Amino acid sequence: MSEPRLNIAYLCDFSPLDPYMYSGGNRHMYEALCRHAGEVTILPQGWGAAERLRRAVARLPDSMSLRLRWRTQFALAPVVARALRAELSRSRYDALFCAYALHSLSGLAPPYPMVTAFSSDATQTIYRTSEIGQAHPSRFPGGRRLDAWVEARERRVLRGTDLLFWPSRWLRDAAEARYGLRVGQSLVVPWGAGLSVPPADVRPPPIDRDRPLELLLVGRDWRAKGGPIAFETMRLLRARGLDARLTVIGCEPPDAHRDDCVTVHPQLDKTVPADVKTFDRCFSRAHFLVQPSYESYGFAFCEASAHGLPSLCLDVGGVPVRDGANGHALPPGSGPRDFAQLIESYVDSPGIYGSLARAARAEFEEALNWDAWGQTVARHLRAGVAALRR
């Protein structure tokens, strides 16, 4: 018997039809719910009577508008929630699903019984107080004065939401400890790769000392993604006699981190077929994704697994890398020598490398894909709706 199709209201501060916002995660969650859960209606992103203020904030540079938008919407919760409540009243929904924009749920009391759900890779407070936030401190003086106020509102929203779908155990554990969430409210459901069509035929590239050794780094911020460590890792490997090369996608390394062994693709658009081919070619040729970044998740690690590409990163935040499954997460503070030594050990053990590459693809097929996410979330939403109707 087929599962019932739910009527879902989708809430975010940016439209999920935009393929670029939130690194594409917003779009993939929306599409996965459409495939596996039911009919999904995108709610307006406006602030009702405060819409002119929202537009004014949106015109500011991204570095300023992000935190200001969150905090302003928390402050204007009664006004914004009133508009959302009126929108929900226009139809009859089984569930309200909110992606990323926790502030959009603030003060919102649904006009009739429905299951409420939320998913994000971080909250402002957990990010700020983690080692990730410490690595990326606030640039604005006085910005910490509202921290306790923001945390109180996060706690109120999260405790009042029925289901919380966290992509990592790190975030689930931090949220339960920080906000005092109910047992069974928090669920770990990994996010997937940001690929419209995952590669079907995955074959690990040969690896040995007589072949070029291809390293890859993906991201918009060279330093935040650990680019300097990746570059120095390449240089150390070359000094040890390996023909190591580094390909960079998404950003421009500074001149000090560029030489004849570095290939740069400053921007590849996954909506452009030619760029997609270049993207897939870079991933298929690489032997390791070397990305010692400080981030709360990281879609690039999922995309690497989809290509059977082992990832090497730092054991920070909720990175979707499991030792021996789809790569290795090294202890924080690990440097180029640690990464180079690990890579060299695989160069000298081609069979073990091949097993790791195949295991990475299996990790993608079992967990790090959006169909797995959509099926799991849909199952919990249906159970919640069924319980509500009893």
From TrEMBL:
InterPro entries: Glycosyltransferase_grp1. Pfam families: Glyco_trans_1_4. CDD domains: GT4_PimA-like. The keyword Transferase applies. GO terms for molecular function: glycosyltransferase activity. Keywords: Transferase. The keyword Transcription does not apply. This is Glycosyltransferase involved in cell wall bisynthesis. The lineage of its organism: Bacteria, Pseudomonadati, Pseudomonadota, Alphaproteobacteria, Rhodobacterales.
